[in-house]
Amino acid sequence: VRELFHNTSQIKIAHRGASANYPENTLPSFQGAIELGAQMIELDVHLTLDEELVIIHDATLDRTTDHTGEVAMLPWHTMAKADAGSWRGESFRHTPLPRLQDVLAWLPNDIMLNLELKGTPHTAARLAAHTLNALNQFHCEERVLLSSFNHELLATLRKLHSNIALGAIFYGRLWPPLALAKELDLFSLHAHVASIDDAWVQFVRSQNYEVIAWTLTTQKHVQVCKESGVKAFVVDDLSLLSVS
Ligand code: G3P
Ligand code: MG
């Protein structure tokens, strides 16, 4: 991850995979992202009742599968039967929900992951520990950036792992601006596209933290981010970044 950011001027991060073209957070969406030129894939991780790591955005199955119920209250064997594709069209019928281990087993060597740890306040500590174990088991630590809106969870990750790349996601601004970044030795600050501006981006970058802007949906977003000096862009639609 550090090498990618050091050597690349435009980092395309596929939000939930190529989610404009495929059912989000599924293997076809991740494969599609690579075909469309992403170097990094963003995906969301939750913990099931029986402590499997499942890739899904929401805390429930309702929006993106043909099942219902809370992820944290269901065992994996129930979720394994869910169809996470047909809500996006017949051609995606029977696309399964992936687990983190399925993604790590599939992941091509040159592709990076941005794992966003969701879970709930009650599952956060176990979600952190299980995620690190899986990355260790698949020898993927160097290719993964772990991020979260839950900054306490980031602190747990840092206690458990002294040098894995961590990023804080937030709306608006963090205050004091770099206190969290210094305290947790963060790699990156993940700012909502609406709060990107030149002075802030330049300040953060001058202190050697990376800025990641999420989630860009228009050419105007791309333009504002580029003019501010952002070089890592989270997008649903990768074609937004192919226009210069
Ligand atoms: O990592 C940025 C973005 O994924 C955060 O929002 O809700 O799409 O996971 P969300
Ligand atoms: Mg996310």
From TrEMBL:
GO terms for biological process: lipid metabolic process. Residues 10-244 form the GP-PDE domain. InterPro entries: GP_PDE_dom (IPR030395), PLC-like_Pdiesterase_TIM-brl (IPR017946). PROSITE patterns: GP_PDE. GO terms for molecular function: phosphoric diester hydrolase activity. It comes from the Bacteria. This is GP-PDE domain-containing protein.
